[in-house]
Amino acid sequence: MTRYVEQLNECTNPTSGDYLGIYDDSAGATDKDRKVNISRFAVLANSQSFTAEQTFAPSATNINAVKASMPASNTAYAFMAYYNAVYRFGVYSRAALSLVELFSDDLGNTIAGPYVSVGRNSNATVPSAGSVQLYNRSGTPYSLWVDASANLRIHTAAPASAANDTAGTVVGAQTSWAELKEDIAPWDDNRAALDAVLACRLFSYRFKTDETRRQYYGIVINDGDRGAWFSENDADNQIPALNERNLFGHLIAAIQAQQAQIEELKAKVEELKNAN
């Protein structure tokens, strides 16, 4: 005979202390009908505290494992993580704010502050650096990574192989600390440096992606400038970029060459004065 329950009032707000009836197949023959506290189950309408590890295993490749769909005009986090009841990490998803936040905390006097760690492609044959991708306001993606020479680089494509580990341009100034260099030798060809600086052509220009249309004045590097004293040329597929280290060196040497010429002219002027 089929047994079923009907015409019972619904419990719409089950809480701890409420029970569900179950049929316990593992129990003894005289104790099959039992009850279980509702607090042992996840109830969709209730706040829950899970004290054991939870595993989400979607049944299909197009199903998300975890989805937080925040209501309009919300002021809460989509996700929060705590350590010992202290807030550490959260994700905001609001109408006017998308934010991943690592919150400040007292971590002791020998511990680094909160940080984000990005690994690498550790393929044994062709490893590649990890990167962070940022979009400019026009929607163009740029990747930031550290190349094999410990230079921070930026490029429109992530470093997918060793070949383009030196693609893009180096970010920031490069150190002149002697301990990072080898084969150091004096370079005093000041006249050649002066000639190179005097031969350098200057242009006015604007950046294609700059919506302000501001005008700049300076050096413009073309693909044909590869190998020139003012151009980086670390890899065949690298966009030619201004080599500030070489540029500064040539400018200093050019000034020194001009100063030598000035001193020579001063000496000749003094000779003429004394001769008269």
Structure commentary:
This protein has 276 residues and is α+β, with helices and mostly antiparallel strands. Among the domains are: 52 residues, no CATH class; 90 residues, no CATH class. It has two helices and eleven strands, in the order βββββββββαββα. The protein has a four-stranded antiparallel beta sheet, with no helix packed on it. A three-stranded antiparallel beta sheet has the order 3-4-5, with no helix packed on it. A hairpin with a 2-residue loop joins strand 3 and strand 4. Helix 1 crosses helix 2. The radius of gyration is 34 Å and the shape is elongated. The termini are far apart. The relative contact order is 0.06. The model has no long low-confidence stretch (mean pLDDT 87).
The outline comes out as elongated
Kindly report the average pLDDT value: 87
Cα-to-Cα separation, first versus last residue: 137 Å
**Strand arrangement across the biggest beta sheet:** 6-7-8-9
Helix content: 10-25%
| Number of beta strands | 11
Structural class call reads alpha+beta
Topology order in helix (H) and strand (E) letters: EEEEEEEEEHEEH
Query: Main beta sheet: strand number and arrangement?
Result: 4 strands, antiparallel
Strand percentage, roughly?
Answer: 15-25%
Tell me the radius of gyration.
34 Å
- The stretches of 5 or more residues where confidence is low (pLDDT under 50) are none
Number of helices: 2
Summarize the structure.
The chain has 276 residues and is of the alpha+beta class. It has helices spanning 190-199, 244-275, and strands spanning 19-23, 33-37, 77-83, 86-94, 97-102, 132-135, 141-146, 152-155, 169-170, 203-205, 216-218. Strand 7 and strand 8 (152-155) form a beta hairpin.
